[in-house]
Amino acid sequence: MxxxxxxxxxxxxxxxxxxxxxxxxxxxxxxxxRCQTCGHFQHPPYATCTQCIGVxxxxxxxxxxxxxxxxxxxxxxxxxxxxxxxxxxxxxxELDDAxxxxxxxxxxxxxxxxxKVGRRVEVIFEKLNDDIVLPQFKLAGE
Amino acid sequence: MWDNRCKIAVSGVGFSKVTRSADIPLAAHALExxxxxxxxxxxxMDDIDGLATYPELPATGHAEVDGISxxxxxxxxxxxxLPSLTWHIQVGSSNIGGAFQQAANALLAGVCKYAVVWRxxxxxxxxxxxxxxxxxxxSGQFTGPYGFGGPGQGHAVAYARWLETNGQTRDKMATLxxxxxxxxxxxxxxxxxxxxxxxxDYFASRMVAxxxxxxxxxxxxxxxxxxxxxxxxxxxxxxxxxxxxxxxGQRLHFxxxxxxxxxxxxxxGGSSSAKLTWERSGFTPGDVDVAQxxxxxxxxxxxxxxxxxxxxxxxxxxxxxxxxxxxxGELPLNTFGGSLGTGRIHGLWHIIEGALQASxxxxxxxxxxxxxxFVGASAPIVTGTTFIFVRDPY
Lengths: 142, 394
Ligand SMILES: [Zn+2]
Known about the structure:
The complex is a heterodimer. Chain A is mainly beta. In chain A, 6% of the residues lie in helices and 38% in strands.
């Protein structure tokens, strides 16, 4: 299993678009930006709805279950911050409640070989410091 | 069909030495390529009155120093001091293919007579994607914390999805990579000219970001290429046989900032650019005699083959088998070796090779009776430009 203990993850810097997402993560909740006009979920947050150009956008709670949409297994050690964890799985997840809104994550708690397109995952939360909690994923039902 | 079909032509082309390390300033590479292209045309430098480039360095975490890590129009003009310069541009949103297209537009508008387009690429010291620091701000805040650094992983996720949703394995990609390395042996300017690659080498090579092994990724190099673009009537009076521009297109589908760009719909992106190119040129994929498709990562070629219409979605890895893409095959592909053979110079080399094939000037790698020559000059994902060059301007 990938050893994450020596990895120094870059700390996300919330901005005016993304602060509600990170505030929710700190409460161990997922909130995604949703267009109030057409109902479209999008991630990362954006100034306007990428589907209907609506400007009435709000963050709504969504459940943390979804499937792996795509993944890679990282072997390259060029990024020294992550070198001690290779090989590790970086995944893209499509949540059941927010189709089309892709979230990145690492597959934690399993061998990196368990990352496959379509596999069920659920969110877990990794505290980076007192201000930032990072949504992550593990295989569902484990 | 396009009113300006075959009214523009590529004339001379030029190449610098391609080296792994940056022993001399990048400006010297760019100058060597530009001088080569002007001389190949039979022009004098003072005849050049238009300049176009895309000066971006695709590495991160390195200082942009003009003349060292990028070569801007200003830097080129400082070296050449062209007495009759009447037009210039450096594009920001559409890659080097967009710079070429803008030069074509300027020539058609009559605001310059002989435009030089160049692409110079630097290989910085140390790690190419140098991602120091403890913070992930802006578009990186949803990807950086998970180890998504350079473009390699971003493209790898799309390739893994393509493989699994289409029930394919990466083994078949060896055919593409080996064919291109074979073609590279006919291109004396290429970085890997003189270095063979075997099937065993491909399968024994280290993984970078699954499904990409080392040989699926173009090697960072220092070098430059250039071409002279002019009106067809003028090109006919110059030294080389002209390669006529029958049509071009741009990608019309854009992506939200911060999302992993490679997860865009490449079929929508690539086909929107290719559709314009087919319509303007009057050709279809079945008419194409030879194709150059951007290959910074090997998987870009499969997205290109599918979205441009050479084969159906999900079938590209089967399409490239059984000699179809070899120099004497049905659709000779990346005949100059591609970026996987030349090193990372981006798509202007693909455009140059498309022009050389159309004008019958590709030497020992010349495809016999090539008339319709297709180019996809960047990945259909994120940004994309496509072109058709022909030998016969009718
Ligand atoms: Zn909307």
